[in-house]
Design brief:
Layout: E1 2-9, H1 17-26, E2 34-40, E3 43-49, E4 63-64, E5 70-78, H2 81-90, H3 100-111, E6 121-129, E7 134-139, E8 148-152, E9 155-159, H4 162-167, H5 177-186, E10 200-201, E11 206-211, E12 218-223, H6 238-255, E13 263-266, H7 271-283, E14 288-294, H8 309-319, E15 322-328, H9 331-344, H10 353-363, E16 368-370, H11 375-379, H12 383-386, H13 395-405, H14 412-418, H15 423-426, H16 431-437, H17 449-477, E17 482-484, H18 490-498, H19 519-530, H20 535-541, H21 547-550, H22 561-566, H23 570-577, H24 590-601, H25 608-624
Parallel strand pairs: 13-14, 13-16, 14-15, 16-17
Antiparallel strand pairs: 1-3, 1-9, 2-3, 4-5, 5-6, 6-7, 7-11, 8-9, 8-10, 11-12
Helix pairs in contact: 2-3, 6-18, 6-20, 9-25, 10-17
Length: 626
């Protein structure tokens, strides 16, 4: 696990080792164990190393192939590297290290870009071909590891974080107004846009070829993999599915235990992280586990159930882990916002400061931590979302219904007022078209509720899960911590995409409407009414964790912010959004924004997601000087 950065000057001007050093220094937190650089005329590759596999200098990067044609800078872990290594050895390749980096490099030597389809893991990489004078940038199937790039004045800059691009001097920090509109609609980015003007995030499951033929660097993006949720033909025995799911899950966790340093696990109190920890604990006795809880003295109503420490402690007892926990209070959000915004770089999908603290805790004891992310998106953990659009006249009807639901922050009818200062610059953007564009590569015949369910699963894996992964990478690497996600094992994902909808969900024709802002309550309310969601996964996990855990409602990892924003944090909210000259009002209308915030502070409507986003955007403006 590492950080990468680099430049490619299309006009042929030489890359600067001084500039490259500034870029890698900007992301030194991602790799405190070593650094390296490579210059070949107009191309410069940089690397910061977090040593996980092969702690010797044999894993030093950038790494050149034996004949010197290819040079690789790589961030990630390919868990099947030993199998690929054996295959490559049978083809005549020889290895001088035990690192997965060398396996990745020689896989490209042997198979070219087709090698990407063989990797089971997480990665972002850059491969320079000195013979063809081409640069290949690539990102893993699911987008676990980010890779940003920008082309300015004919020169390409890229890096694991935007900070590396800014440090190059080739990219200026400017607010992307179209990106702001996208974020304020979805609390996420569904395209390759970011909050930074002219900076893009390479899509998951793609690679980009960059060429320069005595002219500007030209980036051509190619997709090598995509999700494909499909309903299998014919009838299949549930017992067979159950056995296969259990086998693949155990295999996935076991694969991701490969490491030359200590591994820990997040243990939230829920089924997904609990199951991952249970399997890991059988192979790593006294594995360290980590939980963040919340002080509920000032919480009220449903938020009184947000603290899962008791359940996590019970599972720690069951699995005999070495358990550590911390308790977050209302003031902890204000305390961390400056560092959080700097490392996060752009807000996505919900409140994320508890994740920052969880990573900080884990990093004090281990370099690698296992996460339960992905279980919900693959196995149907959000039924109340999917059922909003399961009975439709056609695809466009489905889009209308689902798009209306996913306007998480500001509805269309209010956007012109909120963005009045810049509306002339963004009024041509149709966010419904952005939403519909997510499905461009998931075409199928939509005739049954199951078809629409699979479309929704595809949508959430491409957007919501991707946002969660980007956030998790940034906040864990802020503490030089590698996060692994066993649910995103290739074989397990392939199985989940072919699993019949009836084995994930049980009420395909029933709609239970819940408020998406009510993170904790909506899951409990829904499960209480339906006992629905992740049906087969629950049965499989009964073999590994207590039944009372698999039968419990999902509890999201969220602080009681709805209460805190109206109580202990109200002064902070008002200070940042009402007093002085908040920077966000260069782009937003203060009266329109404050009217929405007042709805929450005065108890008329829960707008915790919007308030969090506004606070984060204000801090973004302060940090990055929009």
């Amino acid at each position: 696990m590492c950080g990468i950065a680099g430049v490619f000057h299309g006009n042929g001007s030489p890359a600067s080792v001084v500039v490259l050093k500034k870029m890698t220094d900007a992301i030194a937190h991602r790799g405190p164990d070593g650094e390296g650089s490579f210059i070949d005329g107009a191309v410069g590759l940089g690397h910061r190393r977090l040593s996980i596999i092969d702690l010797t200098d044999g894993g030093h990067q950038p790494m050149a192939s034996d004949e010197g044609r290819y040079v690789l800078t790589y961030n990630g872990e390919v868990y099947n590297f030993n199998e690929l290594r054996a295959d490559l050895q049978s083809k005549g390749h020889r290895f001088r290290s035990r690192s997965d980096t060398e396996v990745v490099l020689k896989a490209f030597v042997e198979w070219g870009p087709e090698a990407l389809k063989k990797f089971n893991g997480m990665f972002a990489l850059a491969l320079w071909d000195r013979q063809e004078r081409t640069l290949l940038l690539a990102r893993d199937r699911y987008g676990i590891k980010p890779l940003y790039y920008s082309v300015e004045n004919g020169s390409l800059s890229f890096g694991s974080e935007v900070k590396a691009l800014l440090a190059s001097g080739l990219v200026k920090s400017r607010m992307n107004r179209e990106g702001l509109l996208e974020y304020l609609t979805f609390q996420n980015f569904f395209t390759d846009q970011t909050l930074f003007q002219d900076v893009k995030l390479l899509p998951a499951g793609t690679y980009a070829l960059v060429r320069a033929d005595n002219g500007p660097a030209a980036v051509a993006v190619h997709r090598y993999w995509d999700y494909a949720f499909t309903e299998p033909e014919g009838s299949h025995d549930e017992a067979e599915y159950l056995e296969e799911l259990d086998r693949l899950f155990v295999q996935a966790v076991s694969r991701q235990l490969v490491s030359d340093v200590d591994i820990g696990a997040y243990l939230s109190g829920g089924m997904d992280s609990g199951s991952v920890t249970a399997i890991a604990a059988k192979q790593l006795p006294y594995i360290k586990s980590f939980t963040c809880g919340f002080d509920l003295n000032s919480a009220s109503g449903v938020e009184l159930g947000y603290d899962e420490r008791a359940t996590a402690e019970y599972m720690s007892y069951m699995f005999k882990t070495e358990h550590y926990e911390m308790v977050l209070k209302a003031g902890d959000m204000e305390r961390v916002m400056s560092r959080l915004a700097w490392h996060l770089e752009e807000p996505r999908v919900g409140q994320s400061y508890p994740n920052f603290y969880a990573a900080q805790l884990a990093s004090k004891f281990v370099k690698v931590v296992l996460s339960g992310a992905g279980g919900d998106e693959l196995f149907g953990g959000y039924p109340w979302r999917y059922y909003r659009a399961v009975v439709n006249d056609d695809f466009d009807h489905y889009i209308d219904k689902y798009y209306s639901f996913w306007q998480r922050l500001i509805p269309n009818r209010q956007m012109a007022n909120v963005l009045a200062p810049i509306w002339g610059d963004v009024s041509h953007i149709r966010t419904r078209d952005i939403f519909k564009g997510v499905f461009a590569h998931h075409a199928s015949s939509l005739t049954r509720p199951e078809d629409y369910i699979n479309h929704s699963l595809y949508f959430e894996a491409k957007t919501f899960l991707h946002g969660l992964l980007v956030v998790e990478d940034k906040l864990s690497m802020a503490h030089s911590l590698e996060t692994r996600v066993p649910f995103l094992d290739n074989d397990l994902v392939d199985f989940a995409m072919r699993l019949p909808a009836r084995l994930k969900l049980g009420n395909l024709g029933e709609v239970v409407r819940l408020n998406e802002n009510e993170t904790g309550s909506k899951t409990a309310k829904y499960f209480e009414k339906t006992k629905d969601g992740k049906l087969l996964l629950r049965k499989a996990m009964e073999r590994h964790i207590p039944r009372k855990i698999t039968d419990a409602a999902k509890q999201g990892f969220s602080a009681p912010d709805a209460s805190w924003f109206k109580g202990e944090s109200i002064d902070y909210v008002k200070r940042k959004l009402y007093q002085g000259n908040p920077r966000i009002y260069e782009f937003m209308d203060p009266d329109a924004v404050r009217a929405l915030v007042d709805d929450h502070l005065e108890g008329r409507e829960n707008r915790r997601l919007l308030i969090w986003s506004l606070l984060n955007l204000e801090k973004w403006c302060e940090k990055f000087g929009a």
